[in-house]
């Protein structure tokens, strides 16, 4: 009888040991599973804190840049600029620049060699005035007609001032210039001999001018809605000549109907 009780006690002890081992194994598995769940991209804060998911990394696909309506950095004359010398005027493409020089005390124009008629657009021109006094200038004609009798004109002078004007013909077909912004000095302009970057945004009746990435003026005029773009230098009456070099020109559309 004692032997049988000893045997039963032994079996009971074995059973208890097995149960304890199973309980330990199950507890360890649960703890391990919880640690894995908490470790998957989350930080768990105890107490008054909160559970914060770690940020996910999303690759953003950049929007494609619009195709320019016109571009040139003057590596060569593939676009077909009108170049050459005539009395008092020089147009030259060399050393990755377009040089315009004028000693005739008049305006030397250089139209963009394209048949595009521009309405809403952004134009950026990079240029350097190499030789100029306070009455000499370099600039852009915007939305001009075929003869540049009617247009907007941005002008940068040799004394770090700028002006924006509107050109038109009176009833007797005489040229008239009306200043929308009269000659104005700005610290945004670098002096002659240093490179400047000018951007003009034309959108409907609104014109915005940036010089070296600084917005210097905005204005509204609704007279001219589309036309050609041209570069120019203007030799005033007080110097023996003006010379400017353009390093690049780019025109972008503002919408799908930027040109027609």
What keyword list fits this structure?
single chain, 260 residues, mainly beta, Jelly Rolls, nine-stranded antiparallel β-sheet, six-stranded antiparallel β-sheet, 17 strands, disordered N terminus, disordered C terminus
Mean pLDDT: 82
Number of strands: 17
Low-confidence stretches: 1-10, 12-62, 256-260
**CATH architecture classification of the largest domain:** Sandwich
Helix content: 10-25%
Helix/strand structural class: mainly beta
The CATH topology of the largest domain turns out to be: Jelly Rolls
CATH level 4 superfamily of the largest domain: Exo-inulinase, domain 1
Share in β-strands: 35-45%
In the CATH scheme, the class of the largest domain would be Mainly Beta
Report how far apart the termini are: 113 Å
List the domain count as a whole number. Answer: 2
Give a short account of the largest sheet.
9 strands, antiparallel
Computed Rg: 37 Å
Order of helices and strands: HEEEEEEEEEEEEEEEEE
Shape annotation: globular
Structure annotation, total helices: 1
Can you characterise this structure?
The chain has two domains: 2-53, no CATH class; 70-253, Jelly Rolls, CATH 2.60.120. The model is unreliable at 1-10, 12-62 and 256-260 (pLDDT under 50). The longest helix is centred in the N-terminal third of the chain and has 38 residues, at 2-39. It has 260 residues and is mostly beta strands. It is 15% helix and 44% strand. The strands form three sheets. Strands 3, 4, 5, 6, 8, 13, 14, 15 and 17 form a nine-stranded antiparallel beta sheet that branches. The chain is globular.
């Amino acid at each position: 009888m004692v032997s049988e009780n000893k045997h039963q006690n032994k079996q009971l002890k074995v059973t208890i040991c097995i149960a304890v081992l199973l309980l330990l194994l199950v507890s360890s598995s649960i703890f391990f599973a919880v640690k894995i769940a908490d470790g998957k991209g989350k930080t768990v804060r105890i107490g008054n804190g909160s559970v914060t998911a770690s940020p996910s990394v999303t690759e953003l696909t950049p929007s494609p840049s619009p195709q320019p309506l016109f571009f040139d950095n003057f590596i060569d004359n593939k676009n077909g600029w009108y170049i050459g010398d005539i009395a008092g005027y020089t147009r030259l493409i060399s050393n990755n620049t377009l040089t315009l020089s004028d000693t005739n005390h008049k305006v030397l124009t250089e139209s963009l060699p394209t048949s595009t008629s521009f309405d809403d657009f952004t134009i950026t021109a990079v240029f350097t005035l190499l030789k100029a006094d306070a009455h000499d200038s370099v600039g852009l004609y915007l939305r001009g007609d075929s003869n540049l009798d009617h247009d907007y004109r941005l002008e940068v002078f040799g004394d770090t001032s700028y002006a924006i004007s509107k050109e038109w013909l009176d009833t007797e077909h005489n040229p008239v210039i009306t200043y929308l912004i009269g000659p104005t000095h700005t610290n945004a302009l670098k002096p002659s001999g240093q490179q400047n970057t000018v951007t003009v945004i034309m959108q409907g009746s609104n014109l915005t001018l940036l010089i070296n990435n600084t917005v210097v003026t905005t204005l509204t005029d609704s007279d001219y809605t589309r036309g050609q773009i041209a570069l120019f230098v203007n030799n005033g009456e007080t110097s023996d000549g003006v010379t400017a070099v353009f390093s690049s020109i780019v025109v972008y559309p503002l919408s799908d109907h930027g040109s027609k």
